[in-house]
Amino acid sequence: MAISSRLPAACSLLMATLMLLIVQAQSITRRYDFNVQMANVTRLCASKSIVTVNGEYPGPTLVAREGDRVLVRVTNHVAHNMTLHWHGIRQLRSGWADGPAYVTQCPIQTGQSYVYNFTVAGQRGTLWWHAHISWLRATVYGAIVILPKLGVPYPFVAPHKELPLLFGEWWRADTEALISQALRTGGAPNISDAFTINGLPGPLYNSSAKDTFKLKAEPGKTYLLRLINAALNDELFFSVANHTLTIVEVDAVYVKPFPVKTLIISPGQTTNVLLTAKPFYPKANFYMSAAPYSVIRPGTFDNTTVAGILEYHNPHSASESSFDKDLPLFRPTLPRFNDTGLVTNFTSKLRSLATPQYPAAVPQSVDRRFFFTVGLGTRPCPVNATCQGPTNTTQFAAAINNISLVLPSTALLQSHFTGKSRGVYGSNFPVLPLSQFNYTGVSPNNTNVATGTKLLVLPFNASVELVMQDTSILGIESHPLHLHGFNFFVVGQGFGNYDPVNDPMRFNLVDPVERNTVGVPAGGWVAIRFLADNPGVWFMHCHLEVHTTWGLRMAWLVLDGSLSNQKLLPPPSDLPKC
User: Fold this and answer.
1) The domain that contains 124 carries what CATH number?
2) Considering the entire predicted model, what is its pTM?
3) Could you tell me the residue range of the domain that residue 39 belongs to?
């Protein structure tokens, strides 16, 4: 009897051990070597030397599974300082690996290396990585593909093939020289010369037909397109001629699937779509096109269109790679560049799955509420100087709650961790606008912004509600805001000025979309909620690079919790020094 009574316990122990071994076998350490180096690239009939990773443009795809540990050794072989950001990775307690220069780390200097060390915890889907210093992400970027754990299927039909589509921008000029000149003059930098798909501008630009991305499809097959907007300054519409796309994920979070002819994707955002090929060979080719969404007036933007080509395998042809240029080539009907109605209609359809397996853990109560204005402004010209800003006595600026963040000469996270914040940053970022006005009405006479290095402090595990309000100063505009270190739920949005009495009654607290980057509507507002469960210093900024450069950025300081697993880990020994 005694022996038999032990058998169930022994079996349970054996089963538990086997399960642990299975879990450990699923979660592995993946190592990558990223060498930052120059490479000569020819686009638009002109060659130039660009900064790349491993000589690739776009850079290599980083592949991992949910639960994997990732080690990326970055070695800087170029004359520029460098950091890399793993956009959308939660970085739980590993803020040292987040990447924004002078926020979580000092830059990797020429000839130096740094190992980014993080674990992909509770995430699966499409994210991306990019340089996070100056405008170097113009060419330094690539996809992150996070596969589900072994044996866990997608919550949608399994695709025949998966591939990333990265939208970028191309300048004939050196982007570092371009932004340096703009900062000297106080004016707006020159717009890009082309958009790209996977680094290729495509046939709608002069002499670029040979540089065209092509997707070869088989009739009846379903393809998972991992869309990434890596453009510096443009939100993009995307459509495939005569085909419907099914949205299944945004920012590495599954959503309730819905079909669209055209989608909107902002800089920093990712969107996974299913494209089902036509059941029979269609005897035609189809453009996959992207063009900008913009409401800025006055102002200029790159109003061009990039196209790749969807071509079908001809079952009657022996060739796999030939492109039949004699077939009809269909173009999608893209929206007008300022079609805010389409943008609103699309974003309003995004909903979390909110299932037992993929719940929507929306904070139902709120500990801290904040109201931020986001938008443009001005700064006075230096004494005895003439500027090229809105007037010849002002230069362009941008701010959150009228504070234009000035990055320090050392890293904010290290200053916090070592207790040496005096003279580096203050902890008094305003929780409300310092001066209230009709935010989407007539612009105030004084458009100057204040400057400073101020953080907003949160206790660990506080539930946060943040309303971000666009302003009409220098014109209304959509601002894609990215929060590092967290996902958040988009519980509400609207146009005009936010109404704190009536608007919250319409918040969606059941199945709102969960993201890391959200567009603040032009002339409107967006409300998000998140749980401050990740200690560290976390950057939040507009992902239009020109606005970040002008100061539309801030940082949250989330304090340690009381338990050992609620505290920021110590910095790695190879953390770069300023």
Assistant:
1) 2.60.40.420
2) 0.94
3) 28-152
